[in-house]
Amino acid sequence: MASKAPSITRIGIIGSGSWATALAFLFTQHEDAAEHPVRWWIRQPEALAHIQRTGHNPHYLRSLSLNRDRIALHGDVQEVVDQSDVLVLAVPSAYVDSAIGEVRGLEKKVVFNAVKGLVTEDHHIPARYLNKVKGVPYGRIGLISGPSHAEEVARENWTYLTLACPNERLAERLAERMRTHWLRTETTDDLFGIELAAVLKNIYAVAAGIAHGLGLGDNFIAVMMSNALKETRRFLHAINETARDVNSSAYLGDLLVTAYSPHSRNRRLGTMVGRGYRVAGALIEMDMVAEGYPAALGIHAINQKFDVPMPVAECVYRILHEKIAPSIEMRILADNIH
Predict the structure, then answer these.
(1) pTM score > 0.85 for this model?
(2) Secondary structure percentages of the chain, helix, strand, coil, to 5
(3) End-to-end CA distance of the chain, in Å?
(4) How crowded is residue 53: how many other Cβ atoms within 10 Å of its Cβ?
(5) What is the 3-class SS of 70-134, one letter each residue?
(6) Do 205 and 99 share a structural domain?
(7) Nearest to residue 294, comparing CAs of 145, 100, 144, 123?
(8) Residue 6 pLDDT class (50, 70, 90 cuts)
(9) Which listed residue (108, 201, 230, 305) is catalytic?
(10) Do 223 and 181 fall into the same domain?
(11) Are residues 20 and 152 in the same domain?
């Protein structure tokens, strides 16, 4: 007898940043949220109280008005897990383990990751962490990927999302739940490839920002991003050999929006470093998590095994973590790409 398909009726969101806020807004657009409010875990009690009172997140996307009748706020993450069919992870990668490391019953849920980074000191992609550490079967693990910025989702700008899951029928069911007249969704089974591409694009956005901060111009940045896509193709092929088109929006589109958009915090980090900020000072002043910083270290560590030529990613790693002068590293990079 075939196993019963998991329910996706009750949605739970873990995280309270800009992307979590945009996703909460997005899921409340569906009529199911009228009967089954979106469960949303907010870590900070004062933020929870403010959203409950006003319908606005006091820290992120502050102008976005949330439908309080379609949201149930929780300060206890276990309550959200227990009362949801689908969990959407939307916390910075560095905080995933502290957010859900102690929760029980996650292995019985469907978990879609909206994190664009590596988890734990072992540099796990989120899917591997969820499977190896939390026991969630790969067939119940998915990814919500761009190209998208939370700020534009909040404004209802035309947006395309890709949902990845080894069980593509499950991805399609959640994709249908997320579609609106201004947001389109596609699905794929390339969970590992898109998760890794999402990690890499943050590194390359830092590279674009550094070049911008140094005043190297759009001509050079375009060539650098072309090489970044080649690096992505080589790295994904070495890690997980399967048929994929890295020119599609989930790979190339996500790279471009992160590298070029003024909303990109990773590009902003790179721009500050290119203009002379110390890395530590730039991270503090941003007061937001730039996933490209830990990602550069993680991809460098992973690539010690695979030895894929990645001059752009290595350039960012040396600037951010070995504290080599950006002008020196970009000059070396310029002589090694074409």
Answers:
(1) yes
(2) 55, 10, 35
(3) 56
(4) 10
(5) HEEEECCHHHHHHCCCEEEECCCHHHHHHHHCCCCCHHHCEEEECCCCCECCCCECHHHHHHHCC
(6) no
(7) 123
(8) confident
(9) 201
(10) no
(11) yes
